[in-house]
Design goal:
Helix 1 runs parallel beside helix 12, helix 8 (about 305-320) crosses helix 11 and helix 12 runs antiparallel to helix 13. This protein has a seven-stranded mixed barrel with strand order 3-4-5-6-7-9-8. The protein is elongated. It has helices at about 1-10, 100-105, 140-145, 180-190, 230-235, 280-290, 290-300, 305-320, 375-385, 400-410, 410-425, 430-450, 465-485, 490, and strands at about 15, 85, 90-100, 120-125, 130-135, 150-155, 165-170, 200-210, 215-225, 245, 270, 330-335, 340, 500-505, 510-520, 525, 530, 540, 545-550, 555, 575-580, 585-590, 600-605, 610-615. Helices cover about 25% and strands about 20% of the residues. It contains 14 helices and 24 strands. With about 625 residues, it is of the alpha+beta class.
Amino acid sequence: MKVAFLAGCVLLASACGAPSTSPSTSPVLGPPTASSPTPEEPSRPTDQNTRPDDGSTPQPGPPPVSTPEPVTPPRPTPSAPRWPALQTTLPTYELTLRQEDYQALYDHLHDPPSKDFSVQGQFTLEGREYPAELSFRGRSTKTDPRIVKKSWDVKFDKSQRFQGKKNIELLASWKDSGYLTEKLWYDLAASLGVRASSARYAHVKLRLRQPDGTIVTRYEGVFTELESVNKDFLQAHGFDPEADLYRAGMHDGEMRPPPQEEYQEPWDKKTNESQPWTELWRLLDGLQKTPPHQFAAFAEQHLELEDYLTWLALETLIAHDLQGDTRSYLVFDPDTRKWTHVPWDLNNALSLYNRTNAVIQGVKRAHPLFSFTPYDPRVYKLADDRRVFPGMETMKPGWSTLSTRVYDDPVLRARYAARLRLLLDTWFTEENIGARVDAAHALLAPFITPGADGKTQDPYVSPDHVAHSVEYLHRFVRERRAWLLEHLRDIESHGSGALVIDRVGREATGGFWVQLYNRGTVPVALGGLQLSGFTRVPGQWTLPEGSLAPGQVLTLRQDAVGPEHLGASLDANAPELSLYAASGPLALDLLWLAPLQPGEAYRRTPRGAESFGSLTGP
């Protein structure tokens, strides 16, 4: 029955728009040198019930039958997933602009992000023209000299929107061999009910108007049209139309309250821009200052938690990486008073079959669990690698406070693990996802695989990579799924290490004290371990040599001298404490607490447990 059901899902189809007739192609004029003829597109299907006008008098027919209003199906869920309808044709979008304006876009490639350069032009679909503001989109994809196929942001006039949209984003997906991965993961998110952008494929042609009035037309290949996250998105995905929409700054996404680091770009508010940011600051403050025993209730009250747990399961499968650079979104719905995380830049997944690498590639099946958290070794390496760049010299390891606290909370972690196990058993399978990959490739193959003349219609693809793209994604899903099934117990046992931060408090004089506890069965060496009152700075203070026997407690005080001195600095208004391994920067234990007054303390109860509470004195 499961196979039949999945096959039925794959056979669902809906057209995203019929292809337009291709204009003739002229020699290329512009910065890129690659050129290709416009693809020969399938003819428009005919309606067998319609005949040409023969001049006869129409005969009266039966009275029209009223059609019931279509019923919107419920949003998919992990227990009742449903793929979006398969795309069966590609619309052809034409972008018309002056040759000198096209050159100007290249002249401004390296402008800072705050100065997004655009030109006036025209967007055309099936003969209907829309005035449009055109610009290259992206950052590294825009400035990387290898990427001659540029992505576009198309903004429409308020009085003449395209299909009701304020703008569309056309992703060149140059690195995505076979153009399969990014759209696949957005479709997979939609199949689970995650509120993320919809995606579809489209042909793009450039029409460059020359100084003498002639027009040079160039086929730019297959693009992924990605739904912009804006007010239109809110309405399309069932949010209150008056919801607040925020976007994280570049190198951020850490879900921490201000102040930001100097290398991080500020957040943007995309709707209700003139209104205060009160709700966002309240959320970020709560994520940092809610003590562990209250965090699950806080998350349930303030977040669309089921959606976020589903997202965590999805990003675990696809190995979503560089999340600090994705600039994902947060939506605060004033009706539900809850926040929704809207993911972005799913091409940052390590599952991407990257054409800049060799044709034969191994899949990154063993990408660490708990991605973009202090338990992910890659966040420390990324910070080390980027400190060599101007403006990034002080970069600290970065991660999501929200994801970290979900994984650290035993109740929320168990829900996440159960969600991931369910999907690995039922939906994250090669049979299910592989069928979707095969269908997408069949749709695109006429344009991205060589024809009888040995050439591809899309002028920018790497045919050798295209030839292996389907097999690569099949292999990724198969091997990643197998690895995750082998390591589910590591998720479930997270937080079971021997040495823990057991208690944190303040003396009557205001100084902090900390107790470490060995809840294991063998002595634990302390020398070289690091304690920090700022979780992003692992090396704030190093413990002296020593060991802690099973069941023993080590008390460290800021006011003490000698071996019991606590060298870590804590903020009384936003106390947090992290314990890092001696072998390298990797978190062993972390605590975020509410502000502590002199004489107040916080503890595990009983000692070493995963339950917490307050107390007076050590």
